[in-house]
Amino acid sequence: MKRQKFYESGLLIPIFALTGRSGSGKTTVANLLRSAGVPVLDCDEAARIATEHPACLKDLSMAFGPKIFNEAGLDRRKLAELAFKNERETKKLIEATHPYIIRILLQWARESAAAGADFVVADGAAIIGAPFEKYCSLFCVMNADESEQIKRTIMRDNITEEAAKARLAAQLPQEELVRKADFVIENTKTPLELEKNTALAL
Q1: What is the pLDDT of residues 109-138, one digit of tens each?
Q2: Residues 6+ apart with CB under 8 A from 200
Q3: Measured between alpha carbons, how far is 152 from 98 in angstroms, rounded to an integer?
Q4: For the stretch 27-62, what's the b/e string if a residue is b when 16 or more beta carbons lie within 10 angstroms of its beta carbon?
Q5: HSE value, Cβ hemisphere, 13 Å, CA-based, for 38
Q6: CA-CA distance, 6 to 119, in Å (whole number)?
Q7: Other CB atoms within 10 A of residue 192 CB
Q8: pTM, 2 dp
């Protein structure tokens, strides 16, 4: 996928992607970057806002059917269960939500530029191989052992080991992500080592 230069998309500053598979440590690194004064765009938060939009909800309903809704509205847990079941279902989720997510992320990037930022970092799992990839100028990929990814995903999302493995299986392989990376942050040792590796990336 050809990368789109930031000035071609109406932005004044570049977007650097912080990405990796579930449970690889993206959130920890994103928080370290925020502590260092780096503006970070949270793709999960953008997704949450996007899925409150009536047009996005309609697209999700067309993709997954009425079973993703309950009396309170969108059943996010049910949507995650269906969407992360396999790669085909994850692709359906991306097609339904990413046009709305991208608009939000680009708006946040423009606001950061207006506030004087030289660049922004987008923190998200589905960037490489997804529509938002073309808006990013640089890719920083988290690398962690798969056993740790599974363990962290189970703890974070309160799901079964089977569900965590299915979620990871629906994502791009670690080897492919690393191959496309401009920088790799290793998260295979201690939290202190992760902090040092993040500082090196900066």
Answers
A1: 999 999 999 999 999 988 999 999 999 999
A2: none
A3: 25
A4: bbbbebbeeeebbbbbbeebbeebbeeeebbebbee
A5: 24
A6: 10
A7: 8
A8: 0.85
- Quote the tokens at residue 41: 């765009």
**106, two tokens:** 């680009």
Q: Please state, in angstroms and rounded to a whole number, the distance separating the CA atoms of residues 113 and 21.
A: 28
Residues 6+ apart with CB under 8 A from 115: 39
SS3 per-residue string spanning 122-173? EECCCCCCCHHHHHEEEEEEEECCHHHHHHHHHHHHCCCHHHHHHHHHCCCC
Using alpha carbons only, what angle is made at residue 198 by residues 197 and 202, rounded to the nearest 5 degrees?
115
Cα–Cα distance for residue pair 134/128, rounded to 1 Å: 9
- pLDDT of 167 above 60: yes
Q: Nearest 5°: phi and psi at 115?
A: -85, -5
Q: Following DSSP, what letter does each residue of 53-104 receive, concatenated?
A: SHHHHHHHHHHH-GGGEETTEE-HHHHHHHHTSSHHHHHHHHHHHHHHHHHH
Distance CA 181, CA 19 (A): 9
Six-digit token string for 145: 């052992």
pLDDT, tens digit, for every residue of 12-53?
789 999 999 999 989 999 999 999 999 999 999 999 999 999
Which residue bears the tokens 């067309």? 62
